[in-house]
């Protein structure tokens, strides 16, 4: 009998906890019916802005998983005027990232000196065949549409040097 009485407070406490939980909204994520609200800068997939890439290979060399594959060839750019000289530039033939190996560390994005790689929050690219996780430059380029715009500068902050350089008026040619 005394044992039954000592059970009552615990039982009441348990019922109170159950009642409290029933009043709370459920935490169930109803994905894929309801898209999750992810932070804008989530590491979903890597986007490539091909026009910025100079095939310098820095990202491929720094990638700890060796999952970036780049091929390029050199092309001659004719001089702008008769007095000028022809230049050589790299043309990107292949830029693949194997997302079955990638560990989403972001090193490639950090080291790219030419702002050619960005995080996109898009994560819906699961595949049934692991080989399809190799994204080529066309596919990596498509992710660029989902890359969020950079945050506004703080009030009074100096303009980024590359933006200031791009906005500088062109120098007039010598007479
Ligand atoms: S995020 Fe890391 S592992 Fe993935 S491609 Fe970039 S450097 Fe390699
Ligand atoms: S993405 Fe950046 S680091 Fe990688 S090859 Fe292109 S320019 Fe170089």
TrEMBL record:
Enumerate the catalysed reactions: a quinone + NADH + 5 H(+)(in) = a quinol + NAD(+) + 4 H(+)(out)
Which positions does UniProt annotate for [4Fe-4S] cluster 1 binding? 53, 56, 59, 112
Q: Where is the composition biased (Low complexity)?
A: 157-168
Does Zinc-finger show up as a keyword for this record?
no
Q: Where in the cell is it found?
A: Cell membrane
Binding residues annotated for [4Fe-4S] cluster 2, in chain numbering? 63, 102, 105, 108
Q: Which GO terms describe its cellular component?
A: plasma membrane
Q: Which cofactors? A: [4Fe-4S] cluster
Chain spans, region Disordered: 148-175
Q: How is the cofactor bound?
A: Binds 2 [4Fe-4S] clusters per subunit.
Q: How does it sit in the membrane?
A: Peripheral membrane protein
Recorded GO molecular functions are: 4 iron, 4 sulfur cluster binding; iron ion binding; NADH dehydrogenase (quinone) (non-electrogenic) activity; quinone binding
Enzyme Commission number: 7.1.1.-
Where is it mainly found? membrane
Question: Residues in domain 4Fe-4S ferredoxin-type?
Answer: 44-73, 93-122
Q: Name one Pfam family in it.
A: Fer4
* Keyword Transcription annotated: no
Give UniProt keywords alphabetically.
4Fe-4S, Cell membrane, Iron, Iron-sulfur, Membrane, Metal-binding, NAD, Quinone, Repeat, Translocase, Ubiquinone
Record InterPro entries: 4Fe4S_Fe-S-bd, 4Fe4S_Fe_S_CS, NADH_quinone_OxRdtase_chainI
User: What is the recorded function of this protein according to its Swiss-Prot or TrEMBL entry?
Assistant: NDH-1 shuttles electrons from NADH, via FMN and iron-sulfur (Fe-S) centers, to quinones in the respiratory chain. The immediate electron acceptor for the enzyme in this species is believed to be ubiquinone. Couples the redox reaction to proton translocation (for every two electrons transferred, four hydrogen ions are translocated across the cytoplasmic membrane), and thus conserves the redox energy in a proton gradient.
- HAMAP family in the record, alphabetically? NDH1_NuoI (MF_01351)
Q: Subunit notes for this chain?
A: NDH-1 is composed of 14 different subunits. Subunits NuoA, H, J, K, L, M, N constitute the membrane sector of the complex.
Q: Which family does it belong to?
A: Belongs to the complex I 23 kDa subunit family.
Q: What is this protein called?
A: NADH-quinone oxidoreductase subunit I
